[in-house]
Amino acid sequence: MTAPQVTLVGLGMTAMSLRPGATALELACQATAAALADVGLEPADVDGLLVGSSQGIRPDRLGVGFAAQGGFADLRLLEHVEIKGATTIAMIQRARHAIATGEASTVVCVFADAPLAEGKGSGSLYAHSGGNTGVRGLERASGLLGSVPTYALLAQRWLHITGTSTDALCAVATTARRWAAGNPDAVNREPLDEDGYLASTMIAEPLRLLDCARPVNGAVAVVLTGQESIGTTRLKIRGAGRDHPVRRRRAGAESWFGGGRRAVDNALAEAGIARADLDIAELYDPFSIVTLVLLDEYRLTGDTPVGTFVRDGHTGPGGTLPTNTGGGQLSGFYLQGMTPLAEAVIQLRGAGGGRQVPDAAIALVGGIGGRMDHHAALVLERAA
């Protein structure tokens, strides 16, 4: 018996809010309902549900209990998946496997988060991740609270090793804003030039405020199926790959970057395509430095140094590799790995409006987790 062709057919998104409001559970219900409506399905038509949530033990963290509130029943597949920023692609891989092996026929993958709450900023939640023991405990005792100072250390190290200047960070941030100008879902759409970037607050050198992602309260859901009768705009999952370097942050090995290329190599090999065949790249970009590191690590700039590549506009509108075409997480919205996936779906559907990349047919979607500890890659193609 031939395995069914697994395609991504539905997309649902909530509004991306910078204000406290609905809970993660409520947002997940909205996004899931929108994704099902996108393909004319009801919860009863779904037999698989995969749920992703932001890290940390929080009372409002989305879990498998969402199945009841979301109106699902008689599921053959129900799991909570959590590999930090690699979770979304891991969910897609799991759903694809389940459909191909007959564990399920139609699967919803949903991620929701609501870090913005009355009386506290989102940073207070992220600063408490990681625990208080071992290496993380030493870091916390030294004042490394949350991801910004950690990624600042990574940035300092990478810029030094590669000889890249900090103006490359500026180029990433301003390019993201140019893309966001055409994205009605982006939360930062105001024009941004070099002067505006340099005027932004330095948080942890060399990372400024505008080098950091913008958390939102929101949710995204997608529908995958092996049934050819479902959906009119179908995206084929051509390839997928993962790589987990398992860093121990000890002397004798690079503590912050290096590793991860295997995820992209495997995804491209399965898809049977080369890097030159990619029309767009949607990469996880919680900080501007991550865009630079991933472009370099994944060998997406050819023989051109990464700093030169971004400064010369190759990742921007009209560039040779349009990257993070909705503004990414810097200017679009930060919903972990769902941000790049949602934008890839929009682009491949030709629904990008003012930011649409002409004739976009093949997309690379990348996700990372932790402090570059987990890498995941996905190749999507618009079905003929």
From TrEMBL:
Which InterPro entries has this protein been placed in?
Answer: Thiolase-like, Thiolase_C_2
Q: Name one Pfam family in it.
A: Thiolase_C_1
- Superkingdom, taxonomy of origin: Bacteria
The residues covered by the Thiolase C-terminal domain are 259-382
An example molecular function term from Gene Ontology annotations? acyltransferase activity
PANTHER family, alphabetized = ACETYL-COA C-ACETYLTRANSFERASE, NON-SPECIFIC LIPID-TRANSFER PROTEIN-LIKE 2
Q: What is this protein called?
A: Thiolase
What is the native source organism of this protein? Mycolicibacter algericus (Mycobacterium algericum)
Traced from the root, the source organism's taxonomic lineage reads: Bacteria, Bacillati, Actinomycetota, Actinomycetes, Mycobacteriales
